[in-house]
Amino acid sequence: MTPEELVAFAEGLSRTVASGGGPRALADYLARRAAVGVLVEDAEWRHVAAAGGKQLPSSVRPLLDDPQERRFGALRNGYAGRSVAIVAGDARVGQLSIFGAGDLDAYEHFARLTAGAIGVEFAREAGGHSGRRRAFWERLISGEPLDAAAARDEAAARGITPATHYIAICLEVEIVNEDGAAADRAKLRAVALEALHASSADAGVLERSGMLVMFIPASREIDAANARTAASLLPRTLAKKAADVRMSAGVGTRLPFASLAESLAQAQAALSIARRLFGIGSVGVYDDLGAYPLLLAGADAKAMREFSLRTLTPLRNYDEKHQTELERTLRLYFSVGQNVKTAAAELNVHRHTVFYRLRQIGEIAECKLDDPHDQLTLRMALAIDALTR
Question: How far apart are CA 160 and CA 133, in angstroms?
Fold first, then answer.
């Protein structure tokens, strides 16, 4: 490893920290640059971050000859990994480990530099106001059991006044040049903070695995609607202020404060779906993606029934209130291959009536019957309803 490579790596670490990245972002940077799996644990051997590998151990403590050893060293029993202590001042504050099939010793300096940067971040979290805030949001979405009352008490201790509900938004930069990735993320962060009003005391901002994650207060549904609109317009807003940066986004649903992890999972799924279906620069809103979240997650029967009911209930409510046959018309329209003339004959109405009902269905269900994605949602909802009724 040449001195130039070490300097370039260290500069990348600095840019990651400067753009607001914490231990997770630093671990992700190491994983991408060295093509290794990375596991970061705190001083109590609790999981802090993982990147780059699917088969990482839950902890390296059982794999170390001496858990208090600070030097870069191999793991026990021939385990394909290396580990080094994370130190802040004279104190050991965590452990960084790398895993892979190649020559891991070649990445000793990368690992030690990253451990040093993470040590600085741990020190900030222990003593700095912004670090304490970030640590709170990390804990809230970690999956660690924490009831709403305890979460509010902990938030107050860290200077956070949480809203009753939040909506999670994930933003990801399309990387063209790895050396400029941190600068692009910094531009995205600045624009997104302003556009989403995420600088208030009760908003949360994190960087996880290269993604910028924002938790936007949404005590009222109108707040969530405004956040969804701002997120949908963000690619256009970003293009005006940083034309060289492209991004994609995912937006979760509005959920109670204590359920923030669920909204984040939805935002991550929406981001993945939007990128796969619509390409780079797209924004996926979980509530508007219809059947696709079910397909991505491999949903169980209960989730599928809930999806079907959620999709068809507006039509059923309208039919019940106005004594119409919109749901029946929709089923028949699909069953005859979307042939309006045949559907009209089966319903014993004029074809103009069928056209009118289809327009009503589109308005009530907030979809377009000529859009293949909306068609998939409606067809799946009807099929699940027929199977589970």
Answer: 7
